[in-house]
Amino acid sequence: MRRCAFSILTAVAMTLGDICLADAYPVEITHRYGTAQIIEKPTRVVSLSYIGHDFLLSLEVVPVALRKWYGSDPYGVWPWGHDALGDATPIVMQGEIDIERIALLEPDLIVGQWSGMSARDYALLSRIAPTIAPAAGAGDYGMSWQDMLRTLALATDTTDKADTIIAELDGRFAAIRAAHPDWQGASAVMVWAGQTGAYTDRDIRGQFLNELGFVVPQAVNDMGTLENFYAIIPPEDISPIDADVLVWIDGGGSIGQLERMPLRPLMRAYREGREVYADPMLSAALSHSSPLSINYALDRLVPLIAAAADGDPATVVPSARDAGILPPEVEG
Known about the structure:
- The protein is α/β, with parallel strands linked by helices.
- The protein is built from 15 helices and 13 strands.
- α12 packs across α13.
């Protein structure tokens, strides 16, 4: 068999057919800390990525263990992933990466593209099983959903499924862009309302807006870094988030936080009704931005953005109305 070498950063530029035309295994996947050598199709996959189980499930790969991020589901899988999970009962891990517990699971593949995995973690994990860390140059949480899916597909011999998923979702984004030419090049930003943290375009939430044709304000991008994928906006100057569309991500108690933001009424986004409030379910879908959650997010978010982007305060954004954050003259 011919060995197939794959660099995560070249995933977009190359087709999987170009990458490997021979047998599926062995494969080599290059990442931040080195190269994962996968000799045969894995059957016991441990997912350390906070959102990685969604990606695996979309490929019909059920991990033996996953890392729960947040939410009330006992397995950390949100509703859009329930059908894909089925009756499976993976081991659930939370908090810091537990090397000893992972070793006891006897995995034959460990994936952690969106995990915050350290070099020390990787050195220990890679002694247990082939381990896929984040891509070099992408930060801990900067890989696109397409790159994450392609990488997992190559590791699990599910490239045909990944190609189909990517083509369908890319096609839907393209159709939305074509239907809304006024969005192309307009500014938009997603902001975690709990701490007023704005997501840069190095984050999947910023990238989601980019795929709709919007541009994250440069002031926000300049405040972030490769590792800090969001920028804390100081209360004395919230102008960087005063965009053509402002999407508030629910952070628990967020509505009260917005009501206590003294300069918010001065923002054009507030005065012109350009604010969208993402409730906990929509916020989670956007924060996962996975092959399983993207369609749900688009179904709900696109109509809300359409109402917000026209800049007419008389066009009520339903989610802002339901959250009670409309300007007083509109609420009246």
